[in-house]
């Protein structure tokens, strides 16, 4: 049996953006940088919370006030022997984010009731109790000889797999305190990566890795690295970094639970008005699979493609392609090629994401306003990040709100849960590289789960319009006399580049600057080839015509 129930939550934790920011002039404060970070100057501690975890109470100074807690929470604290002398630092929104942070006196703690937890060179004590058939967890991290930081997840919100999320909070918090960073202002690795991209383009991850010690908690650094490695086509390094920040296990699948996915998916989309795929933003195979289905989905009557990674799409609809100005994830050539193909087929492109406090609901409203509101019978394909397509999660995600707000039950297709899995007894050929999983032991909150094992090296560059592909060898001159040891080899649509030089390339590969040759598969057309070193220095440029 395959047991991945806790995996999907781990994915969600790392990709959700925060909803609120708090600032206090003294004592406790919260900074929102993709995750919510709690700090307290008075006791020099910090806690690393979920990205979308809103707090109802944050103490402005030690012992100044106490929050109003639900009866459920008060009973849990009583069962955990939390006394009035224990100082509450913060608490979540009642019945939504069931979490409390405290300072506890060492003398009031019975250590025999706790177990030791060691993970990623961090250490904390943990205790579990049951109250009204719900699990409650307390984690303790030592502040000094007399005090502990106590974090309690008490389960009133009923979130599934809360233990996995709680462990993530405790590990990241323990690491931050251990490394002496609890009072350091958060340096946002994604903002830094953006600055590096403007300076170094697709060589950004190689600069980012040099600076990873600047960012404190490593999980977000690994997520940024995975994202930017995928942009430059180094999927091995992207997968290695993703394993570090996601903690996803490589599960073994049984061939009897797998069947070729495309035909089975299309047999269900034909009767659906809305179909939602999810994607891991550092896994281009997810966007590529959707690109392979677009022609047939369009023939079924789907005319809108809604993409989480885009904002305003007026320029995209006008030009038929995307540029670096259209969003972070659009730097991925595969994602960019998906947009170009959809536009060429005839899809109307919708950018629907938002940084609103009510992100999930506003995402739905943005999709509706740009499609169903214009034509109630319009059919929509959605590509969303990670857990947004879950239909039964707590708190609710975009897909659940979509059904609630429109009355339309979308077909939801998960590509992220099995992305690190393998199957030893599968006999297949290169035509079958995406499989529908039929096992009954996954709880992803979606209608379908697929295993996407597309090998991008076997695929042609982009989505050739005619389907005709040429195998050619690219011979690079010797650039090793230059100070750069590697270069970003990029291929552009020549016509699109002439319209906008910031257009996303259709292909990127990091290559050594010494003389080398490598094969590519590409459709007929006229292209521009550029090799850029660090500081975006042009090392090589040539036109490529494929007849």
Write up what this structure looks like.
The structure is a single chain. The protein has 547 residues and is α+β, with helices and mostly antiparallel strands. Helix content is 27%, strand content 27%. The chain has 14 helices and 24 strands. Strands 11-17-18-16-12-15-13-14 form an eight-stranded mixed sheet, covered by helices on one side. A hairpin with a 5-residue loop joins strand 23 and strand 24. Helix 6 runs antiparallel to helix 7 and helix 12 crosses helix 13. The longest helix has 17 residues. The protein is globular. It starts with 6 loop residues before the first helix and ends with a strand.
The neighbouring-strand order within the major sheet is 11-17-18-16-12-15-13-14
The number of strands is 24
- Ranges with pLDDT <50 over ≥5 residues? 1-26
Radius of gyration: 25 Å
End-to-end distance: 51 Å
Number of helices: 14
Which band does the percent of strand residues land in? Answer: 25-35%
Estimated structural class: alpha+beta
Shape: globular
The percent range for helix content is: 25-40%
